[in-house]
Design a protein that fits this description.
alpha/beta; Purple Acid Phosphatase, chain A, domain 2; globular; 5'-nucleotidase,  domain 2; six-stranded mixed sheet; 2 domains; 29% helix; 15 helices
């Protein structure tokens, strides 16, 4: 009798463990973040009532939600680059943080490649979780997928990164790699894993619209957890039979997706974003120690020299005239974006840099705003209109006054507003009204800030314009680096230059 019971029990166990032998219903919780960009400390975004985010508070929310049901914690890319809390350590701080929080998997984002492949390999070796990019060839340390067993359910997680990575990071960072089409990649690995997994998740860094497109083109994907566009998806978007989600940016929100899965299909779901805000006493102690330790190192490194200024760099008169500091910053913007022209607002330059040793803290004081570099394709007519706007408030100096590179222009204070700009030369040649020029600027002006409505209108006029989470997308934008603040771009350039002797060159001249 005992032998019979043992045999029957063994047969029962085989049946319930065999996929498809019996339909089983499983409760699964997915927690997700994307586009963290190293914002480990709470901060106050422009227009916010108070500080938001904070990795120590995010960790507390994760711990609480994990206790309630079987859970996977996932990251959809752009985790190790952006804020100085990660940039100064080439992403090592973010990996340590994610290890402490026990992430289950992460998709590579385009900005994971920004420090080059050698540094990325080092970060991958430190991670105690797989970093996924199934559509990348040439870097075996990036895994195409991982299978996690949760409550008896075999969950295959396939990672994807945007095909635009070769132009979203410096080409030299990915010159040895090949980026494949996401649709074909998903179909390939779904076929490979069809007998190894009960349930599929795509962990993608493609942008919300592209992720929705993927759901339309490849049927039968239960969930796509996305990133790249910093989109605040409050509730899951339903595209066919696919749930498409994304959790905003900078650890300001934690995505929560509760699923009931039966026979590999979702029979019930509920999704939301939990906004993360600092509340005293709710910090995760272990994570807070990591955050604080690196924050202290960041503060210490603010006194690090970056270059030698051989002249005083004038940041005081940038609202009224050409200055050598305005020229220097505009030159760096134009060269970095490989644009023909650069135009930035004098109001974005907030302090001078005295002659002598230039430290990180001086650059941060001069460029305190969280702006990033973009380049826009404008006609000569649109560019002249932007210059007209820049000199439209000479009687009461305003932040809109332009500092430029790659062009020179004259203006008359006596002329009526809208007709003050006289001669405009681009790289020594007269401005052609119908010709297209690439113009480097910052995202604030590109969105119409400081009254530069023409920039925003030019971008929005494109048929493919979209704005998600504060990020502008358009074929009119020829360069965009949302992962680095302009001040960090300037520091990198100053380090390369070593000695700075910027001069006023007659780029902006007042005439009668």
């Amino acid at each position: 009798m005992k032998i019979k019971i043992t045999i029957l029990w063994a047969l029962f166990l085989i049946l319930v463990s065999f996929p498809g032998a019996e339909a089983r219903q499983v409760e699964l919780r997915l927690l997700y973040v994307n586009d963290f960009h190293g914002f480990a400390l709470p901060y106050k975004p422009l227009g916010a009532e108070g500080p938001v985010g904070g990795a120590a508070y995010l960790a507390t929310a994760v711990e609480k939600l994990r206790r309630e049901k079987p859970t996977l914690l996932l990251a959809a890319g752009d985790m190790i680059q952006g804020n100085n809390w990660v940039n100064l350590f080439r992403g090592a701080s973010a990996i340590e943080l994610m290890n402490a929080m026990k992430f289950d998997a992460m998709a590579a984002g385009n900005h994971e490649f920004d420090f080059g492949l050698e540094i990325l390999r080092q970060r991958l070796s430190e991670a105690r979780f797989p970093v996924l990019a199934a559509n990348v060839e040439g870097m075996p340390q990036l895994k195409p997928y991982v299978i996690k067993k949760v409550a008896g359910l075999r969950v295959a997680i396939i990672g994807l990164v945007t095909e635009d990575t070769p132009i979203a990071t410096h080409p030299r960072n990915v010159s040895d790699l090949k980026f494949l089409e996401p649709e074909k990649t998903v179909e390939k690995y779904r076929e490979i894993l069809s007998k190894q997994a009960d349930f599929f998740i795509i962990l993608a860094h493609l942008g919300h619209q592209r992720e929705r497109q993927l759901a339309q083109r490849v049927k039968g994907i239960p969930v796509i957890i996305g990133g790249h566009s910093h989109t605040k998806v409050l509730e899951p978007a339903v595209v066919g039979d696919t749930l498409v989600v994304q959790a905003w940016e900078h650890a300001k929100a934690l995505g929560v997706l509760d699923l009931t899965v039966k026979d590999g299909k979702i029979v019930k779901y509920q999704g939301r974003l939990e906004e993360i805000k600092p509340v005293h006493g709710q910090e995760n102690p272990a994570v807070q120690r990591i955050v604080a330790a690196y924050a202290w190192k960041v503060d210490a490194q603010m006194n690090v020299p970056v270059a030698e200024a051989q002249v005083d760099l004038d940041g005081e008169r940038v609202r009224t005239k050409e200055t050598n500091l305005g020229n220097l910053i505009a030159d760096i913007m134009r060269e970095t974006a490989r644009a023909q022209v650069a135009l930035t607002n004098g109001g974005g330059i907030r302090a001078s840099i005295p002659k002598g040793q230039v430290k990180v803290k001086e650059v941060y004081t001069t460029l305190p705003f969280d702006n990033y570099l973009v380049a826009i394709s404008l006609t000569g007519r649109q560019l002249k209109e932007a210059l007209e706007h820049g000199v439209s408030s000479l009687e009461e100096p305003a932040g809109r006054f332009p500092q430029v590179s790659g062009l020179s222009f004259t203006y008359s204070r006596a002329a009526p507003v809208g007709s003050r700009v006289k001669e405009v030369l681009v790289q020594g040649q007269p401005l052609a009204p119908e010709k297209e020029y690439t113009v480097a600027t910052n995202d604030f002006l590109a969105a119409g800030g400081d009254g530069y409505a023409g920039f925003g209108e030019a971008i929005k006029a494109a048929s493919d314009f979209s704005e998600q989470g504060g990020l502008l997308k358009s074929s009119k934008i020829t360069y965009s680096d949302a992962g680095r603040w302009l001040r960090d771009v300037v520091i990198e350039s100053l380090r390369a230059r070593k000695k700075i002797s910027a001069q006023v060159e007659g780029r902006i001249k007042e005439v009668p």
